[in-house]
Amino acid sequence: MGREILLIEDEPNIIEAISFILSRDGWRVRTHSNGVDAAEKVRSLRPDVVILDVMLPGRSGYDILRELRSSPEFRDLPIMMLTARGQTRDREMAEQSGVSRFMTKPFSNSEMLEAVRALVPVS
Amino acid sequence: MPGESLTGSRIRERRIMAGLKQADLAREANISPSYLNLIEHNRRRIGGKLLLDIAQILEVEPAILTEGAEATLIAGLREAAAHARGGRAEIDRIDEFAGRFPGWADLLAESHRRVGALEHSVETLSDRLTHDPHLAAALHEMLSTVTAIRSTASILAEPGELPPAWQRRFHRNIHEDAARLAETSRTLVGYLDAAEDASAEATVPQEEVDAILEQAGHRFPLIETGALNPEEMAARLAGEASATARQMLVDILARYAADAAALPLARLRPALAAAGPDPFVLAEALGADPARVMRRLAALPEDALEAPAGLVVSDGAGALTYRKPLPDFPLPRFGAGCPLWPLYQSLSHPMVPVARAIAQPGRTRRSFTAYAIATAVAPLRPGQVPLYSAHMLIVPVPPDAEGAADPMPVGVTCRICPHDPCQARREPSILARDGLGGR
């Protein structure tokens, strides 16, 4: 248990690369690539970790994050956000909305792996 | 009042420039050298015939001795001093500086103006970087592609076996992403090139327009006679000006043309001769909109008025959209003016005509009559918020009538205004702090 990740990202080649390195690390990776029904997807899949891109077609990652955090069942779900802009304003906005971790593109594979491992303590 | 109190210093300066000894000048002016010495150190007031005599001996206009350097130059220098961080400019000796080194003073004021314009373009450019949606989208796209390439490439570069199918797949992905990156960067460069063409627009279109209007003396005879239409006139005047400035100029000139057609000089002159320069009296006599009359009065040829009239037009937000300063009534180049101006008073009482004697404190203390009114700029419709703009015509009070009305002190802009205490102040004045006027 505790090894399922939902990757919400619209860039196909990023999805492919991240899925590959996370799967190789032992994670079960599910993917989703639009913003509109992303929160719905989290509800139905109930993953252990969510990786959420900020700029998604249809709906912003911040809105999805806020919606998830507003329901008690997802209050403690580890959610990591990906953004191409590392400005303090974005970071503050994500932190106010209750993000667990914030990662700025372009990141390295090892940074990504370490961050995901840190989010879910190995029991 | 520093302008007057420094008459003695100016006499001394001019005397030294003329190579005269104190005793020589005193003898020619029929006063004792010690009395001249007191005058030159501003410890005795000087006026009347003695001033005229000394001016004649020194071969200068008496006004040069009493009024010193041009008020606009002084205002420019004060602004420069106000903006200097931790500056230690001798504000109290500003007249002396401008009088002794007019060329350097001009240069300093001009450099300060240029710095202001450049700061403004830097602000505009950084706004563009932060808020330009196109640029942000292009950068986001590039960073996403770079992320994909980096991630994929490091998988391929890692030691260890990668199944051939995955290997092929990742190679193909990198190839795709590289092509996409090339395309995005090309688009971005194209966009930045286009932005460069528009860079002149970042250097304050309003200021470009102000400069063009000033050069033309706020008067366009070729439009009055109908020889050129506003577009042709704008094309002739605009030169290197940005597209935005050009468009603003066309709008101003179109309004000018409409004003001139409604109130041609042939109609205006007789009314002016009969009624004088009060725009409200003229508006009634001519059956015209007072705001239009004010614009026409500010565009009159030099011989039509005793002294040229200044004009400020503001939109409903208080932003100055038209500035015609007078030598003794400078106007701020950027931003809003003094909240005490009747201009702003009229904005809060639309359609109520205001006439008020005003004077800017601390300089030559010339009095002006300010006529102001706020009028609707868009059709008035029930249920719609009316849109107003305010006009203020600034007419110098003739010297013989000065002192008739007690002028209300108003400033140019707070930083360089010594009026204190002032309920309308929005930022401290560097003049009050440096003790000007306490001289």
In a few lines, what is going on in this structure?
The complex is a heterodimer of chains A (123) and B (439). With 123 residues, chain A is an alpha/beta fold.
Strand-helix topology:
The complex is a heterodimer of chains A (123) and B (439).
Chain A: E1 4-8, H1 12-24, E2 28-32, H2 38-45, E3 49-53, H3 61-70, E4 79-83, H4 88-96, E5 101-104, H5 109-119
Parallel strand pairs in A: 1-2, 1-3, 3-4, 4-5
Chain B: H1 2-5, H2 7-17, H3 22-28, H4 33-40, H5 48-58, H6 62-67, H7 71-83, H8 94-100, H9 102-131, H10 133-157, H11 164-197, H12 205-215, H13 221-224, H14 230-238, H15 243-262, H16 265-275, H17 279-286, H18 290-298, E1 310-314, E2 320-324, H19 342-348, E3 354-359, E4 367-376, E5 388-396, E6 408-409, H20 430-433
Parallel strand pairs in B: 3-6
Antiparallel strand pairs in B: 1-2, 1-5, 3-4, 4-5
Helix pairs in contact in B: 3-4, 7-9, 8-9, 10-11, 12-15, 14-15, 16-17, 17-18
Keywords:
heterodimer; A: 123 residues; alpha/beta; Rossmann fold; five-stranded parallel beta sheet; 5 helices; B: 439 residues; alpha+beta; 434 Repressor (Amino-terminal Domain); 4 domains; six-stranded mixed beta sheet; 20 helices; transcription regulation (chain B); DNA-binding transcription factor activity (chain B); transcription (chain B); ScfR_C (chain B); Cro/C1-type_HTH (chain B)
Low-confidence runs of chain B (pLDDT<50, min 5 residues)?
432-439
Shape of chain B: extended
CATH class of chain A: Alpha Beta
- Which series of helices and strands of chain B comes N to C? HHHHHHHHHHHHHHHHHHEEHEEEEH
Mean pLDDT of chain A: 88
